[in-house]
Amino acid sequence: MKIGKSRRAVIKSVAAGAGLLSMLPTLTNAWGATEKALGPVLNGQIRHSVCRWCYDKIPFETFAEEVKKLGITSIELCGPSEWPVLKKMGLTCALPWGEGLTRSLDKGFCDPANHDELIKGFEDIIPRVKQAGYDQIICFSGNRRGMSDLDGMRNCAVGLKKLMPIAEKHNVTMVMELLNSKVNHRDYMCDHTAWGASLCDMVGSEKFKLLYDIYHMQIMEGDVIATIKKYSKYISHYHTGGVPGRHEIDETQELYYPAIMKAIVETGYKGFVAQEFIPSRKDDIASLKQAIGICDVA
Question: pTM of the predicted model, to two decimals?
Answer without folding.
Answer: 0.87
